[in-house]
Amino acid sequence: MHNFHKERTLVVIKPDGVQRSLIGEIIKRFERSGLKLIGLKFIVPSAEFIEAHYTLDKNWLVNVGNKSIQGLKDKGIVPSTEDPETAGRKVLDTLKKYMVSGPVVVMAWQGANAVKIVRKIVGNTEPLASDVGTIRGDFVLDSYNFADADARSVRNLVHASGSVEEADMELGHWFKEGELVNYRLVQEQILYDVNLDGILE
Fold first, then answer.
1. 151-178: b or e for each residue (b if 16 or more CB lie within 10 Å)?
2. I need a surface site. Which of 85, 113, 134, 162 has the fewest CB within 10 A?
3. Who contacts 148 (Cβ-Cβ below 8 Å, separation ≥6)?
């Protein structure tokens, strides 16, 4: 059975988030939602490590390639290839360049509906389509069109796992055994205790 308040997800503050001094602001938004930080590191990942991250899901290259091809067609642009894997590889190459350009902050967050809560706080993958109040909606002016014109990845500050299954794979990739900490936060009694026992003396 899925232990709902122990659900975990991965968040990576990308190099642009670090360079824009938004680390504290981003962490604050997850903290105030009630999620618990259980892992944190500051690293410069290698290109090989980033490639392994994006290809943990064996269908990722083809899926992202299909999206890229369709996106170009929707804009009336003839894609340079109709092969999804080749198109996906081009996207991966721009992501690798982006993700290794500087240090990143890697975090594991835990709590009820952690994956969906984080995705909601972060906002749409394309910043331009993100609602005001989300991280990307509030702090990013980039868009797919702008990024495509420069043949680069969209700079959207944060990576967040897309599903519980994806989170499990990604957490295992970024954190070693023993690096995630089990502990109790006082606020968990308010968030998860059925009767709110023990507040009044």
1. eebbbbbbbbbeeeebbeebbeebbeee
2. 85
3. none
Residue 194: its pLDDT value, please? Answer: 79
| Residue 5 appears among annotated catalytic residues | no
Catalytic one of 2, 5, 159, 173: 159
In the prediction, which pLDDT does 52 show? 96
pLDDT at 201 over 80: no
DSSP string, 156-167: -SEEE-SSHHHH
Sole residue written with tokens 């490590």: 49
Query: Is residue 13 packed enough to be buried (19+ CB in 10 Å), middle (13-18) or exposed (0-12)?
Result: buried
Q: What is the pLDDT of residues 47-81, one digit of tens each?
A: 999 999 999 998 888 988 888 888 788 888 888 88
List the structure tokens of 116: 């969906």
Paired with 39 in beta bridges are 108
Q: The pTM is what? A: 0.91
Report the b/e string of 102-130 with b at 16+ CB within 10 A.
eebbbbbbbbebbbebbbebbbebbbbeb
Query: Which distant-in-sequence residues (6+ apart) come within 8 Å of 199 by Cβ?
Result: 190
